[in-house]
Each structure stands twice: as structure tokens, then as C-alpha cells.
Amino acid sequence: MPELWDIRDQNRNLTGKTMLRGDEIPPGMYHLVVHVCLFNAAGEMLIQQRQPFKHGWPNMWDISVGGSATTGDSSQDAAERECLEEIGYALELHGEPPAMSFTDGNVHDDYYILRRDIDLTKLQLQYEEVQAVKWASLAEILEMIDAGTFIPYRKCFFTLLFEMRDGRGTRSRLR
Fold first, then answer.
1. Do residues 5 and 72 touch, judged by C-beta distance below 8 A?
2. Whole-prediction pTM
3. Which residues contact 22 (CB under 8 A, 6 or more apart)?
4. Mean predicted confidence (pLDDT) in 8-30
């Protein structure tokens, strides 16, 4: 079944319009993408390796969970759904706002930065998306970016995520 996305305006308000995943987002319109960064008590981030057949960044390592909000999803709903779908972990946000939100291009990005001690052996990875998960330190992730095995985020962005892992975030607008 095709995935439907709500179209939002520059201020994140719903426009009442939807689009199919894969269609071009209309100029001046946006869709919502959520990211969940899970950290353990040792300060490591849970990272996932994408499947080799996954479109976009095959076999690459990425942050814990991420994906697009579908029609009717709030940001929290989308984060909870994506976490359960991709790694089989039931996340409860109970209205908690994202730690960090920004707009880049035609995407509103919300980042949830959470501390959870998760037993990786109990996770059920979504075959279509994820081939492996592991805990990694900031140094390990930066080395993986250098080695070309991690999606090439800016290193300073990961430094920020790790600095924010035990505190509240900030909202900013990047253009």
C-alpha cells in the first residue's frame, strides 16, 4: 500500500493536503521526518546498519531510527511507530517534544535524543530496513564516517547529538 504524507507549511502547520511517498514535494511545502537517537548509560548511541538492498545508503550505518511521518502522525506518533517498526522497540513519548527541530530544504526534521538501556538481543529488526544494530561511541562513529561506512553526516552534528544526550535540546532553523 502506498505511503501517504501530510503536507505542511513553512511553520509546520498541516495544509490539509497529502502526497504519495516518492512524489516531488510542491515548492514552498514540507514534510516531516523524525529521528530517534537512543543512548545507553555508558553514553553510547544505538546505531543501525541499513540493508544492502535498501534504496539510499545501502549497507551504511545510521542513527538509531528514522523515517517519515505518515498521514495523521504527530511527530511523537511517527517516532514511536518508526522505532517499533525498524527495531522492534516500544517507545513511549507521552507528548515529549523533540530535543531538536530544524528545517532543511523541504523537510522539517525532529530529533528525539533519549537515554534507554536496551538489550540488543531482544530487538526485532525489520528485515526490509535494518540488517544489524550495535552500540557505538562518538569516536567510533566519527571513525566510521571517515572510513565511509556511516552515512556522511557532518561530524560536528554527531558531536552535538552526544553533547545533548543527557539534557534538553534547542529549536533552530537552518537554511
1. no
2. 0.91
3. none
4. 94
